[in-house]
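Hi L.,

You mentioned the student needs an example of a multi-chain input paired with its predicted structure. This one should do, with 475 residues in total across all chains.
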Amino acid sequence: MPLLSRTESMVRQRINRRPSRLLAGSLPWLTIMLGSVAPGWVLIASAPVLPPLGFLMFLAWRQLRPGLMPIWAGLPLGLFDDLFSGQPFGTAVLLWSICAIVLEVIEARLPWRNFLTEWLVAIGLIIAYIILCLGISNIAGAAAPLRVIVPQVVISVLSYPLVGRFVALIDRLRLTPFMVLR
Amino acid sequence: MAPPANRRSGFSRRAQYSTFFSYAAGVIGAVVGLVLLVVAIVNPNAFALLRGAAADVTEPAAQASAGGRSATREFFAEVSGFFTTGSEHARLERELAEAKVRLAEAQATKDENRRLKQLLDLRDDNMQPVTYARLVGSTGGSTRRFATLGAGADRGVAKGMPIRSPLGLVGRVLEVGASSSRVLLITDTESLVPVRRARDGVAAFAQGQGDGTIRIRLINLGLNPLRPDDVLVTTGSGGLYRPGTPMAVVTKLLRDGAIARVLSNPSDTDYVTVERAWAPAPPPPAEAKPGSE
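Structure written out for the whole complex:
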Protein backbone atom coordinates (compact mmCIF):
# COMPACT_ATOMS: atom_id res chain seq x y z
CA MET A 1 0.00 0.00 0.00
CA PRO A 2 1.93 3.07 -1.20
CA LEU A 3 -0.40 5.58 0.45
CA LEU A 4 0.05 4.18 3.93
CA SER A 5 3.81 3.95 3.68
CA ARG A 6 3.99 7.62 2.64
CA THR A 7 2.06 8.73 5.72
CA GLU A 8 4.33 6.59 7.82
CA SER A 9 7.40 8.41 6.54
CA MET A 10 5.69 11.78 7.11
CA VAL A 11 5.32 10.97 10.81
CA ARG A 12 8.26 12.32 12.73
CA GLN A 13 10.59 9.48 13.47
CA ARG A 14 11.28 8.99 17.16
CA ILE A 15 14.42 6.92 16.84
CA ASN A 16 17.35 6.84 14.47
CA ARG A 17 17.72 10.59 14.30
CA ARG A 18 20.96 12.49 14.64
CA PRO A 19 21.94 16.19 14.83
CA SER A 20 23.00 18.00 11.72
CA ARG A 21 26.74 17.70 11.46
CA LEU A 22 27.03 21.16 9.91
CA LEU A 23 25.06 22.80 12.71
CA ALA A 24 26.86 20.87 15.43
CA GLY A 25 30.24 21.89 14.08
CA SER A 26 29.58 25.50 13.17
CA LEU A 27 27.36 26.86 15.95
CA PRO A 28 30.15 27.38 18.53
CA TRP A 29 32.21 29.35 16.02
CA LEU A 30 29.24 31.38 14.83
CA THR A 31 28.08 32.33 18.33
CA ILE A 32 31.58 33.45 19.33
CA MET A 33 31.86 35.55 16.16
CA LEU A 34 28.45 37.06 16.85
CA GLY A 35 29.63 37.81 20.38
CA SER A 36 32.60 39.69 18.93
CA VAL A 37 30.47 41.87 16.67
CA ALA A 38 27.33 42.44 18.73
CA PRO A 39 28.61 44.68 21.60
CA GLY A 40 29.49 47.37 19.07
CA TRP A 41 25.90 47.55 17.92
CA VAL A 42 24.27 47.89 21.34
CA LEU A 43 25.16 51.50 22.00
CA ILE A 44 27.65 54.18 21.06
CA ALA A 45 29.50 53.93 24.34
CA SER A 46 31.56 56.81 25.68
CA ALA A 47 33.23 54.57 28.25
CA PRO A 48 34.18 50.87 28.26
CA VAL A 49 31.02 49.49 29.86
CA LEU A 50 30.16 46.46 27.72
CA PRO A 51 31.70 43.08 28.51
CA PRO A 52 34.04 41.56 25.92
CA LEU A 53 31.25 39.23 24.83
CA GLY A 54 33.30 37.34 22.24
CA PHE A 55 35.86 36.38 24.87
CA LEU A 56 33.17 35.40 27.37
CA MET A 57 31.54 33.13 24.75
CA PHE A 58 34.91 31.61 23.89
CA LEU A 59 35.54 30.91 27.56
CA ALA A 60 32.06 29.48 28.13
CA TRP A 61 32.29 27.14 25.12
CA ARG A 62 35.71 25.91 26.22
CA GLN A 63 34.47 25.27 29.75
CA LEU A 64 31.24 23.61 28.72
CA ARG A 65 32.77 21.41 26.01
CA PRO A 66 36.51 21.07 26.48
CA GLY A 67 37.99 19.69 23.31
CA LEU A 68 35.09 20.65 21.08
CA MET A 69 37.07 23.43 19.47
CA PRO A 70 40.78 22.82 18.79
CA ILE A 71 43.31 24.62 20.95
CA TRP A 72 44.31 26.79 18.00
CA ALA A 73 40.74 28.14 17.69
CA GLY A 74 41.99 31.35 19.32
CA LEU A 75 43.88 32.20 16.14
CA PRO A 76 40.99 32.53 13.64
CA LEU A 77 38.44 33.66 16.22
CA GLY A 78 40.86 36.18 17.70
CA LEU A 79 41.63 37.53 14.23
CA PHE A 80 37.91 38.09 13.69
CA ASP A 81 37.51 39.73 17.11
CA ASP A 82 40.42 42.09 16.44
CA LEU A 83 38.67 43.42 13.36
CA PHE A 84 35.87 44.84 15.51
CA SER A 85 37.18 45.24 19.06
CA GLY A 86 39.18 48.43 18.60
CA GLN A 87 42.20 46.97 20.35
CA PRO A 88 45.56 46.95 18.56
CA PHE A 89 45.41 44.20 15.93
CA GLY A 90 46.63 40.87 17.33
CA THR A 91 45.58 41.42 20.96
CA ALA A 92 42.80 38.87 20.86
CA VAL A 93 44.85 36.37 18.82
CA LEU A 94 47.56 36.42 21.46
CA LEU A 95 45.36 36.49 24.56
CA TRP A 96 42.74 33.99 23.35
CA SER A 97 45.43 31.47 22.34
CA ILE A 98 47.13 31.78 25.73
CA CYS A 99 43.75 31.51 27.47
CA ALA A 100 42.95 28.28 25.60
CA ILE A 101 46.25 26.72 26.64
CA VAL A 102 45.80 27.85 30.27
CA LEU A 103 42.31 26.38 30.32
CA GLU A 104 43.59 23.06 28.94
CA VAL A 105 46.20 22.90 31.69
CA ILE A 106 43.63 23.72 34.38
CA GLU A 107 41.33 21.14 32.82
CA ALA A 108 44.04 18.48 33.19
CA ARG A 109 44.94 19.42 36.76
CA LEU A 110 41.36 19.91 37.99
CA PRO A 111 39.23 17.22 36.36
CA TRP A 112 36.37 17.43 38.84
CA ARG A 113 34.66 20.78 38.75
CA ASN A 114 31.41 22.47 39.67
CA PHE A 115 29.74 25.79 39.02
CA LEU A 116 31.78 27.66 41.63
CA THR A 117 35.23 26.45 40.53
CA GLU A 118 34.39 27.11 36.90
CA TRP A 119 33.19 30.60 37.71
CA LEU A 120 36.30 31.31 39.83
CA VAL A 121 38.59 30.16 37.02
CA ALA A 122 36.61 32.29 34.58
CA ILE A 123 36.76 35.32 36.91
CA GLY A 124 40.53 35.05 37.06
CA LEU A 125 40.84 34.77 33.29
CA ILE A 126 38.37 37.61 32.62
CA ILE A 127 40.10 40.04 34.99
CA ALA A 128 43.50 39.13 33.56
CA TYR A 129 42.16 39.54 30.01
CA ILE A 130 40.64 42.98 30.58
CA ILE A 131 43.69 44.30 32.42
CA LEU A 132 46.05 42.95 29.74
CA CYS A 133 43.87 44.53 27.02
CA LEU A 134 44.19 47.86 28.83
CA GLY A 135 47.94 47.40 29.13
CA ILE A 136 48.37 46.50 25.46
CA SER A 137 46.31 49.44 24.21
CA ASN A 138 48.27 51.73 26.56
CA ILE A 139 51.53 50.45 25.06
CA ALA A 140 50.10 51.14 21.60
CA GLY A 141 49.43 54.82 22.32
CA ALA A 142 46.47 55.24 24.67
CA ALA A 143 46.86 56.42 28.26
CA ALA A 144 43.79 55.16 30.10
CA PRO A 145 44.10 54.73 33.88
CA LEU A 146 43.20 51.48 35.61
CA ARG A 147 40.00 52.84 37.20
CA VAL A 148 38.41 53.16 33.75
CA ILE A 149 37.96 49.39 33.45
CA VAL A 150 36.46 48.75 36.91
CA PRO A 151 32.80 48.91 35.74
CA GLN A 152 33.63 46.67 32.79
CA VAL A 153 35.29 44.07 35.02
CA VAL A 154 32.29 44.01 37.38
CA ILE A 155 29.78 43.74 34.53
CA SER A 156 31.80 41.02 32.78
CA VAL A 157 32.24 38.91 35.90
CA LEU A 158 28.57 39.12 36.81
CA SER A 159 27.33 38.47 33.27
CA TYR A 160 29.53 35.39 32.79
CA PRO A 161 27.00 32.90 34.27
CA LEU A 162 24.35 34.34 31.93
CA VAL A 163 26.66 33.85 28.97
CA GLY A 164 27.26 30.30 30.19
CA ARG A 165 23.50 29.72 30.29
CA PHE A 166 23.13 31.03 26.76
CA VAL A 167 25.96 28.82 25.56
CA ALA A 168 24.32 25.80 27.21
CA LEU A 169 21.07 26.66 25.43
CA ILE A 170 22.87 26.88 22.09
CA ASP A 171 24.61 23.61 22.90
CA ARG A 172 21.25 21.89 23.35
CA LEU A 173 20.05 23.32 20.07
CA ARG A 174 23.29 22.19 18.45
CA LEU A 175 22.78 18.58 19.52
CA THR A 176 19.05 18.38 18.86
CA PRO A 177 18.63 15.33 16.65
CA PHE A 178 16.37 16.12 13.73
CA MET A 179 18.00 14.53 10.74
CA VAL A 180 16.90 11.01 9.90
CA LEU A 181 19.72 8.53 10.05
CA ARG A 182 19.98 6.35 6.96
CA MET B 1 30.77 17.21 36.98
CA ALA B 2 32.83 14.22 35.96
CA PRO B 3 35.67 14.74 33.53
CA PRO B 4 35.01 13.66 29.94
CA ALA B 5 36.55 10.23 29.54
CA ASN B 6 37.60 10.37 25.94
CA ARG B 7 40.42 12.87 26.33
CA ARG B 8 43.23 10.52 27.26
CA SER B 9 45.54 9.67 24.43
CA GLY B 10 46.56 6.39 26.05
CA PHE B 11 49.04 4.23 24.14
CA SER B 12 47.84 5.23 20.70
CA ARG B 13 50.79 6.87 18.99
CA ARG B 14 48.41 8.65 16.63
CA ALA B 15 46.36 10.14 19.48
CA GLN B 16 49.55 11.22 21.26
CA TYR B 17 50.82 12.95 18.15
CA SER B 18 47.55 14.72 17.50
CA THR B 19 47.47 15.99 21.12
CA PHE B 20 51.01 17.23 20.78
CA PHE B 21 50.35 18.93 17.47
CA SER B 22 47.20 20.63 18.74
CA TYR B 23 49.18 22.08 21.66
CA ALA B 24 51.93 23.14 19.26
CA ALA B 25 49.31 24.82 17.07
CA GLY B 26 47.99 26.66 20.12
CA VAL B 27 51.45 27.98 20.91
CA ILE B 28 51.93 28.95 17.26
CA GLY B 29 48.64 30.87 17.49
CA ALA B 30 49.98 32.84 20.45
CA VAL B 31 53.23 33.56 18.60
CA VAL B 32 51.33 34.74 15.51
CA GLY B 33 49.29 37.00 17.78
CA LEU B 34 52.44 38.46 19.28
CA VAL B 35 53.91 39.14 15.83
CA LEU B 36 50.67 40.80 14.66
CA LEU B 37 50.64 42.89 17.82
CA VAL B 38 54.19 44.12 17.31
CA VAL B 39 53.40 45.01 13.69
CA ALA B 40 50.25 46.85 14.81
CA ILE B 41 52.10 48.80 17.49
CA VAL B 42 54.96 49.78 15.17
CA ASN B 43 52.64 50.68 12.30
CA PRO B 44 49.09 51.38 13.55
CA ASN B 45 47.73 51.70 10.00
CA ALA B 46 48.99 48.28 8.89
CA PHE B 47 45.59 46.60 9.21
CA ALA B 48 43.40 49.60 8.35
CA LEU B 49 42.40 48.05 5.01
CA LEU B 50 41.33 44.79 6.67
CA ARG B 51 39.38 46.59 9.39
CA GLY B 52 37.76 48.85 6.80
CA ALA B 53 36.65 45.85 4.73
CA ALA B 54 35.21 44.14 7.83
CA ALA B 55 33.33 47.30 8.82
CA ASP B 56 32.00 47.64 5.27
CA VAL B 57 30.68 44.08 5.31
CA THR B 58 28.87 44.48 8.64
CA GLU B 59 27.69 48.01 7.89
CA PRO B 60 24.13 47.10 6.72
CA ALA B 61 23.47 45.10 9.91
CA ALA B 62 24.95 47.90 11.99
CA GLN B 63 22.70 50.43 10.22
CA ALA B 64 19.67 48.31 11.06
CA SER B 65 20.66 48.05 14.72
CA ALA B 66 21.31 51.81 14.80
CA GLY B 67 17.76 52.33 13.56
CA GLY B 68 16.46 50.05 16.29
CA ARG B 69 18.51 51.92 18.85
CA SER B 70 17.08 55.31 17.93
CA ALA B 71 13.54 53.86 17.81
CA THR B 72 13.94 52.52 21.38
CA ARG B 73 15.24 55.88 22.55
CA GLU B 74 12.33 57.69 20.92
CA PHE B 75 9.86 55.29 22.52
CA PHE B 76 11.18 56.02 26.01
CA ALA B 77 11.31 59.75 25.26
CA GLU B 78 7.68 59.64 24.18
CA VAL B 79 6.54 57.79 27.30
CA SER B 80 8.36 60.19 29.60
CA GLY B 81 7.17 63.15 27.51
CA PHE B 82 3.55 62.14 28.11
CA PHE B 83 3.91 62.93 31.81
CA THR B 84 5.76 66.23 31.49
CA THR B 85 3.97 67.64 28.48
CA GLY B 86 2.21 70.56 30.21
CA SER B 87 5.18 72.12 31.98
CA GLU B 88 7.39 71.37 29.00
CA HIS B 89 5.02 73.20 26.67
CA ALA B 90 4.97 76.29 28.87
CA ARG B 91 8.76 76.30 29.12
CA LEU B 92 9.19 75.90 25.38
CA GLU B 93 6.85 78.79 24.66
CA ARG B 94 8.80 81.03 26.98
CA GLU B 95 12.09 79.94 25.43
CA LEU B 96 10.76 80.40 21.93
CA ALA B 97 9.84 84.00 22.67
CA GLU B 98 13.34 84.62 23.97
CA ALA B 99 14.91 82.79 21.06
CA LYS B 100 13.04 84.93 18.52
CA VAL B 101 14.63 88.04 19.98
CA ARG B 102 18.03 86.36 20.02
CA LEU B 103 17.58 85.26 16.42
CA ALA B 104 16.98 88.82 15.31
CA GLU B 105 20.08 89.93 17.18
CA ALA B 106 22.11 87.09 15.67
CA GLN B 107 20.92 88.02 12.18
CA ALA B 108 22.09 91.57 12.76
CA THR B 109 25.46 90.34 14.03
CA LYS B 110 25.81 88.04 11.03
CA ASP B 111 25.11 90.89 8.63
CA GLU B 112 27.59 93.08 10.41
CA ASN B 113 30.16 90.28 10.31
CA ARG B 114 29.71 89.85 6.59
CA ARG B 115 30.06 93.59 6.04
CA LEU B 116 33.23 93.76 8.14
CA LYS B 117 34.70 90.73 6.39
CA GLN B 118 34.03 92.38 3.04
CA LEU B 119 35.83 95.46 4.31
CA LEU B 120 38.79 93.31 5.29
CA ASP B 121 38.62 91.48 1.96
CA LEU B 122 38.25 88.06 3.63
CA ARG B 123 36.28 85.45 1.76
CA ASP B 124 34.12 82.84 3.44
CA ASP B 125 35.61 79.39 3.10
CA ASN B 126 33.45 76.50 2.08
CA MET B 127 31.16 75.91 5.05
CA GLN B 128 29.08 73.20 3.36
CA PRO B 129 29.29 69.89 5.24
CA VAL B 130 30.55 66.87 3.33
CA THR B 131 27.71 64.56 4.32
CA TYR B 132 25.33 63.51 7.06
CA ALA B 133 25.48 59.99 8.43
CA ARG B 134 24.75 57.81 11.42
CA LEU B 135 27.20 56.56 13.98
CA VAL B 136 26.38 52.87 13.55
CA GLY B 137 28.65 51.21 16.06
CA SER B 138 31.39 51.68 18.61
CA THR B 139 33.98 49.71 20.53
CA GLY B 140 32.01 49.38 23.76
CA GLY B 141 34.18 46.58 25.13
CA SER B 142 37.57 48.19 24.68
CA THR B 143 39.34 51.00 26.50
CA ARG B 144 39.84 52.70 23.12
CA ARG B 145 36.97 54.92 22.02
CA PHE B 146 36.36 54.35 18.34
CA ALA B 147 33.04 54.59 16.55
CA THR B 148 31.97 53.42 13.11
CA LEU B 149 30.37 55.97 10.81
CA GLY B 150 27.86 54.77 8.23
CA ALA B 151 29.49 56.67 5.36
CA GLY B 152 32.83 56.16 3.67
CA ALA B 153 34.70 57.05 0.54
CA ASP B 154 31.46 56.60 -1.45
CA ARG B 155 30.11 59.80 0.13
CA GLY B 156 33.26 61.85 0.06
CA VAL B 157 34.52 61.19 3.56
CA ALA B 158 38.28 61.54 3.86
CA LYS B 159 40.83 61.00 6.59
CA GLY B 160 41.07 63.76 9.21
CA MET B 161 37.62 65.25 8.66
CA PRO B 162 35.98 66.48 11.89
CA ILE B 163 32.64 64.98 12.91
CA ARG B 164 30.08 67.00 14.84
CA SER B 165 26.48 66.76 15.92
CA PRO B 166 24.16 69.77 16.33
CA LEU B 167 25.24 69.85 19.99
CA GLY B 168 28.97 69.85 19.52
CA LEU B 169 32.16 68.11 18.45
CA VAL B 170 32.07 64.29 18.33
CA GLY B 171 35.43 63.28 16.88
CA ARG B 172 37.39 62.95 13.69
CA VAL B 173 37.75 60.41 10.90
CA LEU B 174 40.68 58.05 11.40
CA GLU B 175 40.31 55.41 8.69
CA VAL B 176 38.07 55.42 5.63
CA GLY B 177 36.50 52.33 4.08
CA ALA B 178 34.28 52.02 1.03
CA SER B 179 30.95 52.56 2.79
CA SER B 180 31.95 53.07 6.42
CA SER B 181 34.70 54.82 8.31
CA ARG B 182 36.32 54.68 11.69
CA VAL B 183 36.00 57.70 13.97
CA LEU B 184 38.25 58.62 16.90
CA LEU B 185 35.87 60.02 19.52
CA ILE B 186 37.03 63.02 21.57
CA THR B 187 36.77 60.93 24.75
CA ASP B 188 39.58 58.62 23.59
CA THR B 189 42.83 59.08 25.47
CA GLU B 190 44.70 59.66 22.22
CA SER B 191 42.46 62.55 21.17
CA LEU B 192 43.91 65.98 21.95
CA VAL B 193 41.92 69.06 20.94
CA PRO B 194 43.06 72.66 21.38
CA VAL B 195 40.21 74.56 23.05
CA ARG B 196 39.44 77.94 24.57
CA ARG B 197 36.81 79.16 26.97
CA ALA B 198 33.91 80.48 24.94
CA ARG B 199 33.52 83.59 27.10
CA ASP B 200 37.02 85.06 27.05
CA GLY B 201 39.36 82.69 25.24
CA VAL B 202 41.42 81.12 28.04
CA ALA B 203 43.48 78.61 26.05
CA ALA B 204 43.75 74.95 27.01
CA PHE B 205 44.06 71.41 25.70
CA ALA B 206 41.21 68.91 26.01
CA GLN B 207 42.30 65.30 26.30
CA GLY B 208 39.93 62.36 26.60
CA GLN B 209 40.19 60.18 29.67
CA GLY B 210 38.61 57.03 28.25
CA ASP B 211 35.68 57.05 30.70
CA GLY B 212 33.44 59.60 28.99
CA THR B 213 34.94 62.68 30.59
CA ILE B 214 37.55 65.08 29.31
CA ARG B 215 40.61 66.41 31.08
CA ILE B 216 41.23 70.12 30.49
CA ARG B 217 44.87 71.15 30.75
CA LEU B 218 45.52 74.87 30.85
CA ILE B 219 48.35 76.25 28.78
CA ASN B 220 48.95 79.18 31.12
CA LEU B 221 49.86 77.85 34.53
CA GLY B 222 49.18 79.80 37.67
CA LEU B 223 45.81 80.73 39.10
CA ASN B 224 43.12 78.46 37.67
CA PRO B 225 40.62 80.79 35.98
CA LEU B 226 38.13 78.05 35.09
CA ARG B 227 34.77 77.85 36.84
CA PRO B 228 32.15 75.08 36.77
CA ASP B 229 29.70 75.40 33.84
CA ASP B 230 32.24 77.14 31.63
CA VAL B 231 31.72 76.14 27.99
CA LEU B 232 34.82 75.24 25.97
CA VAL B 233 34.97 75.60 22.20
CA THR B 234 37.61 74.56 19.70
CA THR B 235 40.23 77.13 18.67
CA GLY B 236 41.01 75.80 15.21
CA SER B 237 44.76 75.73 15.80
CA GLY B 238 46.33 72.82 14.04
CA GLY B 239 43.88 73.28 11.21
CA LEU B 240 41.75 70.24 11.96
CA TYR B 241 38.69 71.37 13.87
CA ARG B 242 36.73 74.44 12.80
CA PRO B 243 37.12 77.24 15.38
CA GLY B 244 34.16 77.86 17.64
CA THR B 245 32.73 74.33 17.65
CA PRO B 246 31.30 73.78 21.13
CA MET B 247 32.88 70.82 22.83
CA ALA B 248 32.60 70.42 26.61
CA VAL B 249 31.31 71.90 29.87
CA VAL B 250 33.51 72.12 32.96
CA THR B 251 32.11 70.02 35.81
CA LYS B 252 34.92 69.74 38.35
CA LEU B 253 37.94 71.92 39.03
CA LEU B 254 41.42 70.53 39.54
CA ARG B 255 44.59 72.30 40.63
CA ASP B 256 45.92 72.77 37.11
CA GLY B 257 42.83 72.41 35.00
CA ALA B 258 39.46 70.76 35.18
CA ILE B 259 37.36 67.73 34.34
CA ALA B 260 34.74 68.44 31.70
CA ARG B 261 31.67 66.70 30.39
CA VAL B 262 31.24 66.22 26.65
CA LEU B 263 28.44 68.37 25.25
CA SER B 264 27.40 66.00 22.50
CA ASN B 265 27.08 62.59 24.12
CA PRO B 266 27.63 60.13 21.26
CA SER B 267 25.04 57.71 22.64
CA ASP B 268 22.32 60.35 22.24
CA THR B 269 23.30 61.55 18.78
CA ASP B 270 21.44 60.07 15.88
CA TYR B 271 22.86 61.75 12.81
CA VAL B 272 26.21 63.51 12.72
CA THR B 273 27.72 65.96 10.25
CA VAL B 274 31.00 65.29 8.50
CA GLU B 275 32.79 68.59 7.87
CA ARG B 276 35.78 69.50 5.80
CA ALA B 277 39.03 69.75 7.71
CA TRP B 278 39.44 73.41 8.56
CA ALA B 279 42.87 74.34 7.33
CA PRO B 280 43.67 78.03 7.02
CA ALA B 281 46.10 78.83 4.21
CA PRO B 282 49.69 78.45 5.41
CA PRO B 283 51.65 81.71 5.62
CA PRO B 284 53.76 82.49 2.54
CA PRO B 285 57.37 81.36 2.91
CA ALA B 286 59.81 84.06 3.83
CA GLU B 287 61.74 85.10 0.74
CA ALA B 288 65.46 84.63 1.02
CA LYS B 289 67.21 87.90 0.37
CA PRO B 290 69.90 87.61 -2.31
CA GLY B 291 73.33 88.22 -0.90
CA SER B 292 72.42 87.47 2.69
CA GLU B 293 73.79 84.32 4.27
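You could point out the following to them. The two ends of chain A are 22 Å apart (CA to CA). The longest helix of chain A spans residues 115-139.

Best wishes,
N.
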